[in-house]
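Dear support,

Our group has been running a series of protein-ligand predictions, and this particular one with alpha-L-arabinofuranose is the one our PI (initials K.S.) wants archived with full inputs and outputs. We had some confusion internally about which version of the output was final, so please treat the block below as the authoritative record. The input we submitted was:
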Amino acid sequence: MKQPHRTALCVLSLATVLPLAQAGAEPAPVTITVTKDAKAISPDLFGIFFEDLNWAADGGLYAELVRNGSFEFSPEDAKGWNPMTGWQLVERDGGNGSVLIQSDAPLNPNNPNYVVLGLQKNIGAAGICNSGYDGISVQAGEQYNFSVFARQLAGPGGSLEIQLETTNGILLAKASISAPDSAWRKYSAVLEPTNTVANAQLVVLTTGEGRVALDMISLFPENTFHHRPNGLRADLAQTIADLHPRFMRFPGGCLVHGDGLDNIYQWKNTIGPVETRKGQRNIWHYHQSVGLGYYEFFQFCEDIGAKPLPVVAAGVCCQNSGESVTKVWEQGQRGLALSDMPAYIQNVLDLIEWANGPTNSTWGAKRAAAGHPASFHLEYLGIGNEDKQTEVFRERFKMIYDAVKAKHPEITVIGTVGPRPNDDDYHQGWKFANELRVPMVDEHYYEKPEWFLENLNRYDSYDRTKSKVYVGEYASRGNSWFNALSEAAYMTALERNGDVVHMASYAPLLCKMGHFNWRPDLIYFDNTRVVPSVNYYVQQLFGCNAGETFFAPAMDPVATNVAVSCVEDSASGDLILKLVNVASNAVPAHLVIANGMNVKPDATRTVLTGNPQAEDTFRNPDAVLPKRESMAVANTFDCNLPACSFTLIRMKSK
Ligand code: AHR
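Confirmed final output from the archive:
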């Protein structure tokens, strides 16, 4: 097998990384020559992977502010939870109230529970209070759209009074809704808080004697990302958009194949009016409302210019099933009954039709009815996630794969090769993918930074005639600068191998502080703050500075502590050099652009540096913010690479 661009390979190892330079020792200058040796690389190399874990969706990216507005939480989601979790009865002005959960004659069978609020006499008011996900954060002057489905069950009833309050009961905003009808109907109101409060609560009161049924209680900021209804939290979505991801994998990893067969993610349960969707137990031990469903995922992809990459289960559940907090589920990987596979496969084919089909097709019409007549241009489809390579898996994967290939040869299917970089599942998975000629496989690895530095050559020897690689999940197990630096070095190797590595996404993407299921993560947040990790800035620099042609850089002498890549962005014609110095001494570099391009004098240089010994930098992101400056360059120029730094130089040639 040809070893491409041998001269560019940097064999970094921890032994050469961490020791400080000898006192007084003058580091040798290194000449880095960008040669004419060019190759096309993937235009979709760097993207993102979204999974609803760490409260990434409900209470996170999904802008809904009411927690358990559908009264569907249950002990199956988490120990001690029930349909009233998140809600409290409140009685005001001498009112004598009651609450009860009922499920007869529901708003929708997919969403069976609703609350019945009672007020005994025409005295005062009774209601329910919701404090959202760690409080409801509201801003003065902004508008918040309240809605509820209501039905008067008994008594004359009275108006519904909707109030935003502080936890001390100070009124921030209020609205009144006329007494509900006796049939389910949606009621809406707009609330405009007088003050900015991080942990407000929403109170819904009934003022007339009788019993009123309430369901799907919702409070949404008017200001969602791109002003989409049922949309996404603007600041968090913008932080993701700022990564300039070329694709987004969703709705998750383990969440997709699920904790038991009944927990496999079913995309059809996540589309249509929110009140008709079917929420479910989240494998990460909470509840997923699926308010952020497939329509919203695809819409978000379009809004941020990322290609959608949905993943469906391969007809098997997670091999770790049965380890949830409740531990009531059957253990281990199991496959859908073969008699259920045709219907399951049809669901997968319907997904492709829903995303791309014409508006006169059954599923294309549903997409159009939801507000998107144009195709979503689905190109990629993942089948399976880290599945144990068993006969049960293989049989079902092949059935789905064959059906998709036969009906939709235009779709690039991505298979799976287990959860680790080099174990039995990995080898079995690759063997199977080669047998079936699966176009791409999804590799995952969460390893130490040292592993990343020691494996910069991983893909140099991959067979270019076989499946392409999607590194669907990777992270170096930490948010220190050393972690981020090792990932930066690794990403230069991904660019160098961008002819076989087609896509890569760091994982996990989001984490709400205080609700960790998995660490490290790329972006941390709470209700008012978004705190990107230092790893985020590395991802962002690669995302914003991608190219489709790789020019091989040669190094003389080979600096074992420096990783380098060079790409050309065809849209701008810019040449982009990425230089990662993992040594604890600066390295003087002499750069020679010898690929035939005539470099213009004005370039920009962005440098990320940090203390590699510092533990977590995510709490103090200002310490590692990228420093961007203009720089004079020519076809040869000098550049000092600071100790433990990532330097990016963007040069114009047009
Ligand atoms: O990214 C977190 C989890 O890691 C994913 O759900 C799973 O695919 C992997 O094991």
